[in-house]
Protein 1
Amino acid sequence: MLERSKQLLYGLFVVSATLLAGCVVGTGLDSTPMALNLAGERIDPLQESPAATTVLVFVRTDCPISNRYVPQIKRLGQKFSDHAVKFYLVYPNPDVTVGQIKDHQDEYGLQYAVLRDPQHVWVDMTGVTVTPEVVIFDVKRQMVYRGRIDNRHVDFGVTRAFATQHDLERALETIVAGKKPKPATTTAVGCFILDLKS
């Protein structure tokens, strides 16, 4: 009887772990939680351009590391503009205002679609922890990559003169070629996304 109870508990653990893993890389989404645009409208970024690969770049207005990556983000957006790749900048800081986001866009010349995630719905769903960190969804709504843009930042405050691995670019090149990127996850270095205040 005791052994049977242990088997049931183990079974419940496996089922729970499987359900919790429903948002990891490689898992498709049947429905997508809404995000907010700058007008306060609730949108589904994966449905706005259903035939496109969707790239979510998590950023903060006050994060020097993500701001240093603006030229790289612009370059990649331009490079893949003819390959049905849609870039979004996702602002997860609940305290940032729409005005501050617009000022940030103007200051850095960012012309990408903007999402606000003040309730951390997308942060929790994708598992991102820092800015900048990127997530790629393919046209099947599968999360196929999560991690860094490149390896220039070794650790917080420790950088290389030049990146030697261009992870986001390589992942997008692989997807455009009809394959899934490997590795599917890398470790991003940046400004921590703080937990929501209780």
Protein 2
Amino acid sequence: MEISLLFDFYGQLLTEQQAQAVSLYYNDDFSLAEIASRMGITRQGVRDSIKRAEAQLFTYETKLGLLERFRKTEQGLAGIESLAQSLKENYDPKIADEIISTAKSLHE
């Protein structure tokens, strides 16, 4: 799952061959043999290409952190939604302050 998410964010930065192999393997659930046949390379070549691509995807995430920021934003929005629902059900100025604080934390 992690590789698929990283691929969504950074897949365009991989070589065409790496992107195709990763997509077929993780998104389409092809075997190494099926990918090798389709791409005209060996199973070992497919495996090596996928492993290099995985390493690159993790390197991109370490340097750029887009997936981590996305997750933080998703968590923050879920928190805001929950607090807004509480505010709707039972108005409390403390909840309004929490919403503001949570929203501000997403800008950091």
